[in-house]
Amino acid sequence: MTNRRFKDNGFEPLLAYIILTLGFFGLSIYLFYKTEFAVYVYLLFALTLIGKLSENRRTEFLKICFGDAQVKGIRITENLICSTPFFAFLLYKQFFLFAGLLLVLTTILALVNFRASLNLTIWTPFSKRPFEFTIGFRNTFYLFFVAYVLTFFSVSVNNFNLGIFAMLLVFATTLSFYSKPENEYYVWIYHLNPKQFLLSKIKTAVLFSSSLALPIALVLSFYFYQNIGFVWLFFIVGWAFLIAIIVSKYSAYPHEMNIPQGILLAVSLWFPPILIILIPHLFRKAENKLSSLLK
Amino acid sequence: MIAIRNLSKKYGTNEVLKNINIEFDKGKVYGIVGENGAGKTTLFRCIADLENYEGEIISNLNPIKNHLGLLLTEPFFFQKITGKEYIQLICNARKMELTDIENKNIFDLPLNQYASTYSTGMKKKLALTAILLQGNDFFILDEPFNGVDIQSNIIITAIIHQLKALEKTVIISSHIFSTLSDTCDEIHLLDKGSFIRSVQKTDFQALETEMKQTTIGNRIDKLGLK
């Protein structure tokens, strides 16, 4: 299925795998270069990603296809395969204890049943304006908790970079809320034209992401006053990426964002000023895509 | 009023709707019946502007979609969104302020639970509640009675009567004839993408008898049940 998706987007699978591998190791090296707490973040990120495979409906589907007895084996194998890149990198960095811990936790994750938590409604501060932040917050609230804890550590150990990382973690998490296109009904229902619709989505995203990232920005501005300019620069860059991901999502609507769009966004990660051109371009494209559903 | 003129819809070479001409007046309830695949849902999607089509759809409510409450056969719900938040989302989209939701929860739905955990009937009732609170002038209800319990069926019938009294235009599709005969002023038969017959309320009984005879025929005998 992954190969088919690459081909649909006009990419030779082999080339895509090479780019992904290089990207993965590039970002891993960057993370470990940037902060001494990278190994914790790395482990958490790996488990969050692998945890997605434990989704209840997915497991039920596997049970129907393969039966209870085989499913455990399949799930453990899946998780171990997905943890391989993280495991290999941890070995390369000589974090043997963490590599072992990753394997143990990955195996346990394969056997976990999340069913009991399904009926529990998680509180969210974003109930009044569903749906992206309402759902996103429920899926990732623990990452905000992690970000606030990291901010506390950044102040206590006087590590500004760690604080900036915590703030960017909040923005990166909110970006994930806009990764998938919603059912057309949830665009069609709006009594707005495409431009108003996009601006409304951007306004909500900026407002809500700010409410999550602002406490970190204020703490950093207070305790690292000499770097206050950087704090607010990164804050604005966070907004810019959020806006970019929204217009990018709707510029491909109703399809998922394609790989060339992903590459453009990745390039702008290395050189954010590209967003000044990219955002207006994608905004116009998104307006055009939405014009069939919104009048 | 909504007037449909020479409406046709093709998916590739497959013509799903063929030269449809019909008018829907204010304050009337219309039933659309037809076998599976007759084109009912496609017709509704065209009226809602969810599909491109040939022909024209004229209305004093312009654009129609901004005044239309559309109940889909199988409403889609996000994971991890509560019933109350779903209603909030639908009302926000039409800039309607949501007030006193507990009192308006006439189907006694567990609004603080995730809507994705609701049963089929509960999902339908939630979606219906949401479009009713949008304050629409025009409603398309695609199989509103499907999967819903008897008590709620009674409530939905009463709601449709109330919508008619409020001079709203309502189009319903249903596979249960009695639900249509209880609510509709006219029933239109859609067959292979064309309207083949229109029946007024006075002739509903005759239509039902005729449909039973045509549909059942000697099919049951073929089973050879003993």
Structural features, described:
The complex is a heterodimer of chains A (295) and B (226). In chain A, 76% of the residues lie in helices and 0% in strands. Chain A is an all-alpha fold and 295 residues long. The model of chain A has no long low-confidence stretch (mean pLDDT 88). By secondary structure, chain B is of the alpha/beta class. Helix content of chain B is 35%, strand content 26%. Chain B has helices spanning 40-47, 83-93, 101-104, 120-133, 150-165, 177-183, 204-216, 219-223, and strands at 2-11, 14-24, 29-33, 54-59, 68-71, 138-142, 169-173, 186-191, 194-200. In chain B, strands 5-6-7-3-8-9 form a six-stranded mixed β-sheet, with helices on both faces. A three-stranded antiparallel β-sheet of chain B has the order 2-1-4, covered by helices on one side. In chain B, strand 8 (186-191) and strand 9 form a beta hairpin. In chain B, helix 2 packs parallel to helix 4 (120-133). The radius of gyration of chain B is 18 Å and the shape is globular. At the A-B interface, helix 6 and helix 8 of A face helix 2 of B.
Which helices and strands appear, and what pairs or packs with what?
The complex is a heterodimer of chains A (295) and B (226).
Chain A: H1 2-8, H2 13-34, H3 38-51, H4 56-92, H5 96-111, H6 132-156, H7 160-175, H8 185-188, H9 194-223, H10 228-251, H11 259-270, H12 275-290
Chain B: E1 2-11, E2 14-24, E3 29-33, H1 40-47, E4 54-59, E5 68-71, H2 83-93, H3 101-104, H4 120-133, E6 138-142, H5 150-165, E7 169-173, H6 177-183, E8 186-191, E9 194-200, H7 204-216, H8 219-223
Parallel strand pairs in B: 3-7, 3-8, 5-6, 6-7
Antiparallel strand pairs in B: 1-2, 1-4, 8-9
Helix pairs in contact in B: 2-4
